[in-house]
Design a protein that fits this description.
Layout (H helix, E strand, L loop, with lengths): L7 E3 L22 E3 L7 H6 L16 E10 L7 E11 L6 H4 L4 E9 L5 E3 L4 E3 L9 E8 L9 H4 L3 H9 L4 E4 L1 E4 L5 E9 L7 E11 L7 E9 L5 E10 L5 E9 L3 E9 L10 E13 L2 E14 L2 H10 L1 H9 L8 E2 L22 E5 L6 H5 L8 H4 L11 E8 L4 E10 L17 E3 L5 E3 L2 E4 L5 E10 L12 E9 L12 H5 L5 H10 L3 E4 L1 E3 L7 E9 L9 E9 L6 E6 L6 E5 L4 E8 L7 E9 L9 E12 L3 H10 L3 E2 L3 E4 L7 E2 L21 E2 L3 E4 L4 E13 L5
Parallel strand pairs: 10-18, 29-42, 39-40
Antiparallel strand pairs: 1-3, 2-3, 3-6, 3-7, 4-5, 4-8, 8-9, 11-16, 12-15, 12-17, 13-14, 13-16, 17-18, 19-21, 20-21, 21-26, 22-25, 22-27, 23-24, 27-28, 30-35, 31-34, 31-36, 32-33, 32-35, 36-42, 37-42, 38-41
Length: 733
Amino acid sequence: MTSQISNGVYLRSTINATPATDPQVLAAFSSDIIPLGHTQPDAATLVAAYDHFIAHEIDPSESKTRIYLRGKAVINGTAKEVETQVSLRAIPNELILWPQAWENAAQIGQATLSASKDGEVVVTNTPIAYNPSQGLGRHDTLIAECTTGVAKAAGTLAQQVHNWRDLVKLVGEDPTLATYNVVFADPCSTNVSLTTRLRLFENQATSVHMAFGIEAIGTPASDIDVSLVGFGATTGSKPFTFGLSRTNILPSKLLTTPAILPKDFDGTVTLNVFNDKKQTFGDYSSVSVIAYAVTAVSGKETYTTLGAEHIVFHSDTRVKKVLNKFARIRQAAVATNPATAPAFYFRDQVTDGDQFPRNGTYYFSPDIQPWGTLPDANVQSDLGPANYRVDVSDKRNVSLVANLSNYIYLRGTTTVPASGSVRLFAIPSSVLLHPSQYSTQGCIIYDHTSGGDPKVAIRNYNTTSPEAPVLFTEPFNFSDPPPPPGGDHYCLIAECRPDGLDANGYSYEWPHQETGDFATAAEYAAWIRSNPCVCQRNMCYISNPNAPSQVFYTSFTIPASFSASDVWIFQVQALNCPSGSYIEMDSSDADIKIGKLTITGSDQTAGAEFTGKAPGFTCQVVIRWYANGTQVQNGQQISGNLALQTMMTSMMGDEFFRRRNTGKPSAPSVRTVTHDYPNVKIPDEDNTGEKQPPKIGGAHPRRVLGEKYRLNEVIYIDYIIGADAMGYNIGSA
């Protein structure tokens, strides 16, 4: 087709499409038809994310799903602006989007896209509100049609499309059309199935030579299988089947199977994805089923895309469950409604109230108070209500000591008369403290019976006033711990189990028992910021402030269930360090390091971004501070923070950052395309001399191996989900 198209705003049907030269309308993976559920990003964010597929699942249980439309302007000649009307239709999913299926479907909404310069990206000011209608294994397919002012041929498309060649010419090459045929899936599912309708229209032959492809983009590197089953009948009710038996598929690969279908075939196609080892798919990884027409000239076959449908995996399907669990508490924070506030909560900072999710430091709870090798004889006056907003342990620089008793007090707050229990864990220092670590051997803190037998140490509370600070005056004794392996201190974690029944009518469980292992990093990030019944204290203190340097050892392990495609930033943060001193960081991984960072302000951060690490990746970290002629000063703190990077348009970005200002915008960065990039093009990879079936490329722009690309716009948010720190206070050391 020609590269000259009329003035207007155009939507893409895949993120790799070019409306002027290669619209790919039948690929049906539009990045510009954007269902976003109940999230509400601003227009600037949607424009900044033009190079990203950012859609959410269309959940039949959610009414008034917001659908945004986005496009890029083409303005030729002397025109100063363009205005394009876009109508949107929804139909039950079909693999090949014949106009007979959608042309007469009712519009679900209209929008206007206006632009004033060529190449400008614009988005609808008001989304289209849609009530999803599909169920029982089907999903919604969306078709957008733009009106640019150029007259089309008389008659409907259904009157003009009689076979696949007409479909390709009149629909597939029409840049004013964009299609979205996507369904979302849980990234941890062991089996996902997609069933769709497949029918043919053919007026020039008795059968159609076809091939069906299965394309994987960004999927786990191994142990993922797929299968395809097609079943239908002809006009005479003669059954017809085709398919591909269960086969292993690798990321960025395309499997095909041939089929000769009767001209009046009407049936179903089912794509199955098998994940027997319960691996976690990365966000916006995908498995697509593609229908091709196959023609042969001089013995060489040519494949033409007729339609496609896509399973997209995303952690939001699981994050939604975490957010729903704590929705009542978040609503209480907004409405200041004590009836829905948490009955009990721990603080992460001394100034915290009952507002969740938490923002800021959460690894240094003032409600966990290590006291020393002897209990406090004046605990009520030292740690009770009079000092509720004082971190006494911090002022005293208290660290746990190996091979001796360590007495630790807990505090908390109730918002209503309430009762329940608390317990305490001690874990060798690590930046990321996963719930699966809480109750491992050696981490549980015990009391002892009169006979000397260990029993889990539990303390109870029972308040009678509406709002009360709670001090557990009986300390926990972390007795005679060995020196912590792999680090230089222990981290303390407290959790609470309220009495009574939860919102579902079940007895409360200890938080780590209720959640088990989080399969995705985003779930863990949502949980640790939202749960009022968990807190941690991960801090050691400088023992020799007169030394010319201080060395801080820590580590982290990425849980084996997290996706290798998660993007992480290991940060070193320097608080209240003297100007002129400097910090360096190295680790057991060559990618995770920070060169000399000279301190010029009271709060400085430097980070190393990494991704693509194998499941269960462990890293030993060493952070060094050099006085460089200065002195350790009061309140000095150096922390190693592990941040998860997510998109601002995700459910986390909307619920935490946009609504609650939790998290920080990521710094602009330059990335290099490696073999781990989801849609990597390896030079000369497809240069075999044979015509290959065209790939669609999933939800990620196709990039060449080794290519560098810049993330200039602030469309990512960093959420610190783990931290470990070394500090010092002069006053009471």
